[in-house]
Design a protein that fits this description.
The complex is a heterodimer of chains A (239) and B (400).
Chain A: E1 2-13, E2 16-28, E3 33-37, H1 44-51, E4 59-64, E5 67-68, H2 74-84, E6 85-88, H3 100-110, H4 115-128, H5 144-156, E7 162-166, H6 174-189, E8 193-197, H7 201-204, E9 209-214, E10 217-223
Parallel strand pairs in A: 3-8, 3-9, 6-7, 7-8
Antiparallel strand pairs in A: 1-2, 1-4, 4-5, 9-10
Helix pairs in contact in A: 3-4, 3-5, 4-5, 5-6
Chain B: H1 3-16, H2 18-54, E1 60-65, H3 86-95, E2 99-114, E3 117-126, H4 130-133, E4 138-141, E5 155-158, H5 160-166, E6 176-179, E7 182-190, E8 195-196, E9 199-200, E10 204-208, H6 209-215, E11 223-228, H7 234-249, E12 254-258, H8 259-302, H9 304-312, H10 317-353, H11 363-389, H12 393-397
Parallel strand pairs in B: 3-10, 5-7
Antiparallel strand pairs in B: 1-11, 1-12, 2-3, 2-6, 2-11, 4-7, 5-10, 6-7, 8-9
The chains are: A alpha/beta (239), B alpha+beta (400).
């Protein structure tokens, strides 16, 4: 599903070269549930951005679903994001002036899906995340957990193959965090490939595999259920 | 995405900043209102002036001494070779067939007095035919009687205003007035018909032609008016009249103008004036465009994260461009419509205050103002919208 082949991402800042991602090779199978851990600046977010086609590798190749993303044009990459990838962010990224249902419909508007079809899918997606009765509320009228569930509905409404979640529980209390994780794990169980960047060992422990990043490299690959037995030295407390 | 989606996005974005939106909308509205008002004034001036000439009557030719090589400008201004004389008028009377009336006139300024009341007015030396040529009507009494051209007389016909000023509350008929050094008997009062060519019909006195020429100490005519039976005869009559006079003067030194030629040349001049006014007003629209650009730049930088999100959900560059362009165009279009309304109200007020002035918005000006305001929105919206499309998705999501 996801193949990273000697991928590097290098930022040039004046004289200095910053290797945010340093020769990373990794393969993630379809339907897999992978957590990414590591301290700030270890390259977690850079990897997630590259996997989400928001950023391009400086070197190496990234194949998504057998397609070399590096060879695609800007518009083709947009289409890949549109149809294959869903994003969930730590800060939700809902559009404040739009209602919950309008936020969920957002990707479908750009995908040119007809209005009636949109309405049907929005209703189903909101129902799916348990917010059928919150459709007309603005983000400011929703709790943090509800906002993240709206964001998950938005990320999955186009039926992507991969869900990329960057600290999805980072801004939530533990109860809402558990609800959100339950929700995306249920979607993973239905076949959605799931990649979660997290600081929280309790979250990571539920993944099949954990990639531990350090200085732009994957320092360790651990099975989720082994995480509790083997504490990660570089992990830092959740903010 | 459909136009409806674009409009919906733009509307919710604009509605979120009501003050900012309405201020930049006001800028466009003032620009468009300025275009509408100024072109309406220009169009009003055109209608007013051409209306004045139209009052002359449609089958009227005017012979003016002097040759003007170009058309369009006012003939009669500049060097005059030979004057028009009474003999010329007689020659035309006998040789120019098929005309309805022929009315030679002289003109001067004189003081008309009755007892201690005096008034400086235009005095016209004319014949009986003048009444018909200029389509005047009598209010009371008689017009000048039919007579030979060189036969003077002590009668005068005065305008309604003059009559009221000199004889307040009494009938001027049969009374004697002094015009310059001449004592004249009032035999008629003209029906008030308003102003023609800047000459107030109510504020003038008409005396027999020969008497007028002596009164003004002139041996020549001011001009000769010719009215033809029909519109079709005008050109031919014009040519023949000029030919007859050219033969008599041994050179072509008279100009024949028709009401139509004057109206059309003035109309052209004033339409150009209106265009110029509209162009000047359009400058304020471009200023409004800069206002829109400013608002859109702020809007884009405020919504950097939203642009990042649009990127993340797979929006293409041209879709992001369309989202922001639609917002700018919608803003300027609303501004344009508000400006039309504002201009329309302004003209209504003007018409109420000055009912005489026929202010009217030319349809082309209203259409051009709206089209320009839409174009201004698109033009000045492109730069901010392009800025949005160039944002790096990762940086935009992070809000910088």
């Amino acid at each position: 599903m996801i193949e990273l082949d000697h991928v590097s991402r290098i930022y040039v800042m004046g004289e200095q070269e910053l290797r945010a991602l340093d020769d990373v090779s990794e393969e993630i199978r379809s339907g897999e549930y992978v957590a990414v851990m590591g301290p700030s600046g270890s390259g977690k977010s850079t990897m997630l951005n590259i996997l989400g086609c928001l950023d391009r590798p400086s070197a190496g190749r990234y194949r998504l679903d057998g397609e070399d993303v590096g060879e695609l044009s800007e518009d083709e990459i947009s289409s890949v994001r549109r149809h294959k990838i869903g994003f969930v962010f730590q800060t939700f990224h809902l559009v404040p002036r739009l209602s919950a249902e309008e936020n969920v419909a957002f990707p479908m508007v750009f995908a040119g899906i007809p209005r009636a079809e949109r309405r049907r899918r929005v209703a189903a997606a909101l129902e799916d995340v348990g917010l059928g009765n919150r459709a007309r509320h603005r983000p400011s009228e929703l709790s943090g957990g509800e906002r993240q569930r709206v964001a998950i509905a938005r990320a999955t409404v186009m039926h992507p193959q991969v869900l990329l979640a960057d600290e999805p529980t980072g801004n939530l209390d533990s109860r809402s965090g558990r609800q959100v994780m339950d929700l995306i794990e249920r979607m993973n169980a239905d076949g959605l490939t799931l990649l979660v960047v997290t600081h929280d060992p309790a979250v990571a422990a539920r993944a099949e595999r954990v990639l531990v990043m350090e200085d732009g490299r994957i320092a360790a690959r651990i099975r989720g259920d082994e995480l509790a037995a083997r504490p990660i030295p570089a992990a830092e407390p959740a903010p | 995405m459909t136009p409806g989606d674009l409009a919906g996005f733009a509307l919710t974005a604009l509605a979120r900043h009501r003050l900012r939106t309405s201020l930049s909308l006001l800028g466009v509205a003032i620009g468009v209102a300025a275009v509408v008002l100024l072109t309406s004034l220009g169009e009003g001036a055109r209608r007013y002036v051409t209306g004045q000439f139209a009052g002359l009557g449609s089958n009227l030719l005017i012979l003016i001494p002097g040759r003007n090589e170009t058309t369009g400008a006012f003939p009669g201004v500049g060097g005059v070779a030979n004057d028009l004389t009474l003999e010329d008028a007689r020659a035309l009377q006998s040789r120019l067939a098929g005309v309805q009336v022929l009315a030679p006139i002289s003109m001067g300024n004189e003081t008309v007095a009755h007892r201690e009341r005096r008034r400086q007015v235009v005095v016209i030396g004319a014949t009986h035919e003048f009444l018909e040529a200029r389509q005047l009507r009598m209010g009371r009494g008689q017009f000048l009687p039919r007579a030979e051209l060189d036969r003077g007389g002590q009668q005068t016909v005065i305008g309604a205003t003059l009559a009221r000023e000199l004889f307040p509350g009494e009938s001027p008929l049969g009374r004697v007035v002094r015009i310059g050094d001449w004592r004249m008997r009032v035999i008629g009062v003209l029906e008030p018909l308003g102003t023609q060519l800047g000459m107030d019909i109510g504020d003038m006195a008409i005396v027999p032609l020969a008497t007028g020429m002596r009164m003004f100490n002139r041996s020549s005519l001011f001009r000769i008016l010719i009215k033809t039976h029909s519109h079709e005869e005008m050109d031919a009559a014009c040519h023949r009249a000029v030919a007859i006079l050219t033969e008599r003067h041994d050179e072509e030194d008279v100009t024949c103008i028709t009401q139509e030629s004057v109206v059309s040349s003035l109309s052209t001049i004033l339409t150009i004036l209106t265009l110029a006014l509209g162009g000047i007003a359009a400058i304020s629209l471009s200023v409004a465009g800069i206002g829109i650009m400013n608002v859109m730049l702020v809007s884009v930088s405020e919504r950097t994260r939203e642009v990042g999100l649009q990127r993340a959900v797979g929006a293409h560059s041209r879709q992001i461009l369309a989202v922001f362009l639609a917002e700018a165009v919608l803003l300027s279009t609303f501004g344009g419509l508000a400006g039309l309304l504002l201009g329309w109200v302004g003209i209504r007020v003007l018409v109420v205050v000055y009912p005489v002035f026929p202010a009217a918005t030319p349809a082309w000006a209203a259409a051009a103002a709206i089209a320009t305001s839409i174009a201004v929105g698109a033009l000045f919206g492109v730069l901010p919208a392009r800025r949005a499309t160039r944002l790096d998705p990762v940086a935009a999501l992070a809000g910088h």
